[in-house]
Amino acid sequence: MDPMFNAEWSASEIKLMKAIIAYHDANNSYANGTSKKGTDILDELQARFSWKEKHQVTDLYVELVVEMMQAKLNDDNQPMKATSDLVNDNFGLHVEDPAAIEDNMDVSLGYVMNDTTFMRMVEKAPQRQVAIPREKRQNKERTFWTIQEHRNFLRGLEVYGRGSWKNISRSFVTTKTPVQISSHAQKYFLRLGCPTGKQRYSINDVSLHDFEPWRPQNHSSGWEALSFSGSSNNSNNYGSRAQHVSLGGNMLMYHASQESSIQAATWARSQQIRGGFLPQQWLYMGNM
DNA sequence: ACAATGGGTGTGACGTGACG
DNA sequence: CGTCACGTCACACCCATTGT
Questions:
Q1: Which residues contact residue A30 at a Cβ distance below 8 angstroms, ignoring those fewer than 6 apart?
Q2: Per 3-state DSSP, what percentage of chain A is helix, strand, and coil (rounded to 5)?
Q3: Contacts 24+ apart (CB under 8 A), A57-63
Q4: Nucleotides of B under 7 A from a protein CB
Q5: Which residues contact A55 (CB under 8 A, 6 or more apart)?
């Protein structure tokens, strides 16, 4: 968590906000992806914390929602706690230990990169120059979605829900217009709804909760780090927790000339789909 | 090498709801 | 009721990959 939160928000304020969110959660208001209730919650929160800047409330709300979802994920191997219990124990989070939360923030946010190599691979999408013969398409440059943008999209989806492309564009994916986000969402939901093992890996296979594949306690061998499971096994919406693209360890760093992150991901995915595993020297190359 | 296929991006038409 | 803004859908176009 941003250390600034320590200065901007007191523990009691954070606790209160969590309680409010939990209340809405208990009423099925958050993260069910079916409504625009996220904005309702924000309105209430902004009214409740009227002395705070709007962006402060929004930012903390987003942080807490993601954290709470992550906390629930961590409890997946345990009986699901009742929401009332979550309210009482701060959703299993240790609010008094923000440093620990900060340490896990990337995990909470679904970043697959605790090492910077993966980030380097995905932070810039390939800017393909496409010859567009039609007049209307002249001078148009195709801009591909980065994984980071897609994750921001997923976060916005969780907060604002489907259809609030304007809000998502304004608050989460500022590099894309609402129309572009809508178009991206169209393909995203189409992919979710049409699972087939023949599909290649795509940006839409990246979920918000891609996390922890690199953790040694989760996989005793490098091969287990290659746990791809795209949307084909996902029956949930909005990049749900069941959807993982676990790009284990440093496996994407296989080739110096593999400039395109998308291509790298596609390549890696294809190796898995085809049942052919990665050469071991590539798999462990990043650890050299 | 070539054709087929899958996938990504952008555009236009249409539907819908809010507002005056 | 008309207008406007916005979202959804279908489609075009293109690229990358795969199969032959």
A1: A21, A24, A37, A38, A41, A65
A2: 55, 5, 45
A3: A58/A171, A60/A5, A60/A8, A60/A9, A60/A14, A60/A17, A61/A17, A61/A21, A61/A159, A62/A155, A62/A159, A63/A1, A63/A2, A63/A5
A4: 6-12
A5: none
Asked if strand B comes closer than 7 Å to A266 Cβ, the answer is no
Place of tokens 């120059």: A129
Model pTM?
Answer: 0.43
Residue with tokens 């679904």: A110
Domain ranges of chain A: 4-108, 116-287
Tell me: the pLDDT tens digits for A143-198? 667 767 777 787 777 777 777 777 777 777 777 777 777 777 777 776 666 554 44
Whole-number distance in Å between A78 CA and B19 C1'? 50
